Amino acid sequence: MDTVQAAHTTPAQWMHDAAARARAASAVLAGLPEAARNAALREAGAAIRARAAVIEQANARDLAAFDTSGGSKAFRDRLALNPARIAAMAQGLDEIAALPDPLARTLADWTRPNGLRIERIPQPLGVIGMIYESRPNVGADAAGLCLKAGNAVILRGGSDSFHSARAIHEAVTEGLRAAAVPEAAVQIPPASDRAYVAAMLGAAGQIDLIIPRGGKSLVERVQAEARVPVLAHAEGLCHTYIHAAADTTMAREILANAKMRRTGVCGATETLLIDAAIAPALLPVLVSDLRALGCDFRADARARAIVADLPAASAADFDTEWLDAVLSVAVVDGVEAAIGHILRHGSEHTEAIVTADEAVATRFMRGLSSAVVLWNASTQFCDGGEFGFGAEIGIATGRMHARGPIGLEQLTTFRYLVLGSGQIRP
Amino acid sequence: MDTVQAAHTTPAQWMHDAAARARAASAVLAGLPEAARNAALREAGAAIRARAAVIEQANARDLAAFDTSGGSKAFRDRLALNPARIAAMAQGLDEIAALPDPLARTLADWTRPNGLRIERIPQPLGVIGMIYESRPNVGADAAGLCLKAGNAVILRGGSDSFHSARAIHEAVTEGLRAAAVPEAAVQIPPASDRAYVAAMLGAAGQIDLIIPRGGKSLVERVQAEARVPVLAHAEGLCHTYIHAAADTTMAREILANAKMRRTGVCGATETLLIDAAIAPALLPVLVSDLRALGCDFRADARARAIVADLPAASAADFDTEWLDAVLSVAVVDGVEAAIGHILRHGSEHTEAIVTADEAVATRFMRGLSSAVVLWNASTQFCDGGEFGFGAEIGIATGRMHARGPIGLEQLTTFRYLVLGSGQIRP
After folding, report:
1. pTM to 2 decimals?
2. B119 and B66 co-located in one domain
């Protein structure tokens, strides 16, 4: 097996060699028919099912180490695997196998006046580096999406989940072997040393893309240090703006969902902007709705003039991604003020407007440059599955290559075929 | 005017401030209707025409300085402006104004089972840094393309063309002013100091994309040092492969064009691969054709066994982008050998096959990952104009964001609009 190296190899040397093996594997993968890539995914799923007990034992080692270190309950929950979660991981690989082949599309196709026919077709990106934190299932998902799109991947999970990641990787490797796909298509470092992260970030020219998935500090470190292109979002400071012409029932339902459906996801709303014209009537109702769901508030002076017992927001609160049952609240005067607030405080991730006024909605959608802008829908829809991508490997808020949910399509690049009949250039 | 700073500003400070001004300008540009962007382009073209004499005088200063430094004739030719070249620069801006608006398209559009309608729409990239060498017209072209796509741009031309670039920039600024577009949409550093290049390369988070256009050493330096995403190609080591089933007349015409139409462009063929089955009959004819056009050769032993007076190729010759009237020649055994040679020696830029056999052509096109692969056409077609893009700002061979000719479409990113009717996420 080529995934465990002699202990005397340095992390930088291991990464260099692993990336070279991944490059060779990616060339094979790019030429494989869809059926072969899908077979590898299904075999990997089957191997995960067959090795469920081994994976659970490995996870128990990680949990035992975690319990002696005294981390948070939420973190432990993300780290823990059980039979249902292991089955879901295998199921996820089957579902990726069932998705349409992202390499089979023709992206564009036109004929020039001289008769040259030009086709733009998808091409795998090549070698992807995935850096993630506690959830061990992210490794299986990422391996599945990268493989389906014809890419090799090097997975670097959190050190807390090292044994779990290793056991999952062994199952995936077994699947690759069963489908006669190069094992180097999915690799993990042989140890949990953080130097492997640094080695990955420095592998310019060897790794084509790094996708970090985790908390803000992880992503910001990757963005600051990587010499390799990065597709990511550091935070999702998402806004819901309730315009004066909002349907109040719709506004109540959307805000409760956008804030409280799940508070820890990047598409959760962190700040409510509400028009001054509607706030006296609607804000008390919204506060009451959300309080019933366990939500706390940080409100500006204008909101507190309407609901006196709202805690006061500090200047920093409107720049805070709570990822918790807390909502910043500001009263604004119309759509331009809402846009201005979002441009000052937002993270270009996801924003929503609730209004029955199409002209106002259009202005809001055109005035922002966030990756996803919704009209009369919950910000929690910012998700690859909800977009119909089948699965996602993360969400991107940068300007290059892809924005919003990163699905199979975003894990490809393109190239041109030009079909001629002897044309020469004048 | 905000483009000339006090002399005591350091290059890093100037770039920091310029990027902040560019960011503000880009937000205005992104919201401008097409007519306003086009008016700025036409006004800039008109100002270049009106200031033709001033631009020529500035260019004369650059040429005088160049003549005392004793550079090459080819370099001087690239640097020199005359009334025809200045008129062409203005005409180029009018032509960009006449191109379809890259921001007006809907890139994709679908409706989810829950009724959410999702639209993927274009978005300007933001702030672009353009680094180029001697040709002063590149600055006008780049400004035009960036503006049309709603981007602000900072232009850093070669120090040899500083006065020319400055005079062109003044004309463009006049055009922006006449069209009431923020002047900071197009900026150039106030001095020719190379530290401005370093400042641009380090402006992570402030500049969204750097496009270097010039020789291999410039591009490689930018790629190695930039902390900002780069769209570029370091070299175009392009191959033409003549398969055994090629039409010989077509093969002769394509090769002569691919190598000799212009030898200094990145899409020029640098290496001929010819099948062993056809080489004894065809290679002598090809050599004779190209010799008549002034081409020299570096040939492997198998080619020299057929045409004895071909100069012998060294090992490095097949890795050399000649950009001159020189052709490397290797005899190969079939399409797999041709693909193997290109994967070992190519630069993922442009390759062509000449064959009447569709299965072989398909194998060649599928077996390579170069940005452009042509069948029965000249490699010199790798060009934004020839692709129908109207104009190009460069050619990219990397994997992220865009590959091949970089036209207006490639100077945009995208975002999603999601149109609902009160949907909340289950």
Report:
1. 0.93
2. yes
Smallest Cβ–Cβ distance between B125 and the set A258, A261, A399 belongs to A399
Among B371, B372, B415, whose Cβ lies nearest the Cβ of A372?
Answer: B415
Inspect the interface and report whether the beta carbons of B415 and A370 lie closer than 8 Å.
yes
In chain A, residues 272-331 whose CB comes closer than 8 Å to chain B: none
Same domain, B319 and B272: yes
Instruction: Tell me the CA distances in angstroms from A318 to A258, A313, B156, one per residue in order.
Output: 17, 8, 38
Q: Residue B92 has which token pair?
A: 């180029």
Read off the pLDDT of residues A119-161 as tens digits, 9 standing for 90 and up: 999 999 999 999 998 899 999 999 999 999 999 999 999 999 9
Pairing of strands B186-187, B152-156: parallel
The two tokens of residue B7 are 């002399």
For residue A308, being part of any structural domain is answered with: yes
Question: From the CA of B15, how many Å to the nearest CA of chain A?
Answer: 19
By Cβ distance, the residue of B27, B125, B372 closest to A418 is: B372
| CATH classification of the domain holding A339 | 3.40.309.10
The arithmetic mean of pLDDT across residues A368-395, rounded, is 95
Q: Which two tokens stand for residue B156?
A: 């850093």
A386/B112 CB distance under 8 A: yes
- Asked if residue A254 lies in contact with residue A354, where contact means CB atoms within 8 angstroms, the answer is yes
Q: What are phi and psi of A337, to 5 degrees?
A: -65, -35
Q: Which amino acid is at B279?
A: A
Contact list, B366 vs chain A (CB under 8 Å): 31
Tokens of A303: 């909101």
Residue B284 C-alpha from the chain's centroid: 35
- At A202, which CATH number? 3.40.605.10
pLDDT digits (tens, 9 = 90+) for A45-85: 999 999 999 999 999 999 999 999 888 888 899 999 999 99
**Nearest-10 Cα torsion for B348, B354, B360, B364:** 0
For residue A33, give the chain B residue with the closest CA: B366
- Asked if B400 and A208 come within 8 Å (Cβ–Cβ), the reply is yes
> How far is A200 from B339, CA to CA, in rounded Å?
30
Distance, C-alpha B2 to centroid of its chain: 29
Spatial separation of the C-alpha atoms in residues A66 and B270, rounded to whole Å: 59
* Cross-chain CB nearest to B253 (options A258, A365, A422): A422
Smallest CA–CA separation between B330 and chain A, in Å?
A: 22
A50: in domain: yes
**Claim to verify: residue A229 and residue A248 sit in the same structural domain:** no
Q: What is the ipTM of this complex?
A: 0.94
Give the count of domains, chain B. Answer: 2
Residue A376 at interface with chain B, using a CB cutoff of 8 Å? yes
- Expressed as residue numbers, the domain containing B246 is 238-386
The residue with tokens 């062993």 is B276
Nearest residue of B to residue A151, measured between CA atoms:
B399
**For B54-97, what is each residue's pLDDT tens digit?**
999 999 999 999 999 888 888 899 999 999 999 999 999 999 99
